[in-house]
Structure formats: C-alpha cells, structure tokens
Design brief:
The protein has about 140 residues and is mainly α. It is about 45% helix and about 10% strand. It folds into two domains: about 80 residues, no CATH class; about 35 residues. It is built from five helices and four strands. It has a two-stranded antiparallel ribbon. A two-stranded antiparallel sheet has the order 3-4. The two termini are about 40 Å apart.
Length: about 140
C-alpha cells in the first residue's frame, strides 16, 4: 500500500487507481479527496499505545477511536482485556473442578459439553482436565 501525505502527516490509504470505468474512478477519486479534506481540517489524534500521530477522523469522517495500525490495535485490545480481567479463568469451586475432572470422557463428554453444563469456557475445562495452573497477577 502506498502511503500519501497531507498537512496532518502520512495517511494509511492511497489514491484510487483507474478500474476501467470512468464513473467508478471519478466516485473513488471524489471520496479520496473528501477524506483528505476531512483529515486536513481536524486535529491529530495520537495513539496511546504506539504514540503515532494520526488524522483525527477515519475514512468515513467519524472521530478516530483506535489506531489504524493492526498490530498496535491488537496489542491495545490485549492490554484492555488484561486490565478488565477477561484473560483470567473464572475461579471455580473445588467441588466443580473435581466434578469436571471426574466427568470428562474424550469423545463422549468433552470440553464443550462440560463447559455448557458448568457455565465456563471450553478452554477453562481443557486447562482443568490437563492440570494447567495459571499464575495470579
């Protein structure tokens, strides 16, 4: 992808190429010009994760809510999930853990069936069956 610049810096899209239809090309070029105009009239938005400054609006003209860099956005989602505690396995009572270990039968009563029965995620059941322990943060 070819990066283009304007008064707000490098933008993550390139000018449309001719696709064979003059009308399609004119519409795409008009959208490109409108996006550049919107980006140049707004303030910059700095990503809190990577610190890169971006235009304050996205391609649709809405205020930017996240970094357009997919790798940075992925890191930010993981950090947000860890901060909210969504990466931790739920704390199940010892009786439930013992019941899951006793009832597990490969191919008959697997991870999904036990997870539905005990209200947890299949990976939690897998970790209980395999005896994986997670460190507490």
């Amino acid at each position: 992808m070819d990066d283009r610049t304007d008064s707000t810096g490098i933008m993550p899209w390139s000018e449309p190429t001719y696709s064979g239809s003059p009308d399609t090309y004119k519409r795409a070029l008009g959208g490109y010009r409108r996006a550049i105009q919107r980006a140049s009239t707004t303030s910059t938005w700095t990503c809190p994760t990577c610190g890169t400054p971006w235009a304050g609006v996205n391609l649709e003209g809405k205020p930017r809510r996240g970094c357009p860099d997919p790798q940075c956005a992925s890191l930010a989602r993981g950090a947000r999930a860890r901060a909210l505690g969504r990466h931790r396995h739920p704390h199940l009572p010892p009786e439930t853990i013992a019941a899951i270990r006793q009832e597990y039968r490969p191919g008959v009563r697997g991870y999904k069936a036990l997870a539905q029965e005990y209200g947890c995620h299949p990976t939690t059941v897998r970790d209980i069956v395999k005896g994986v322990t997670h460190r507490e943060d």
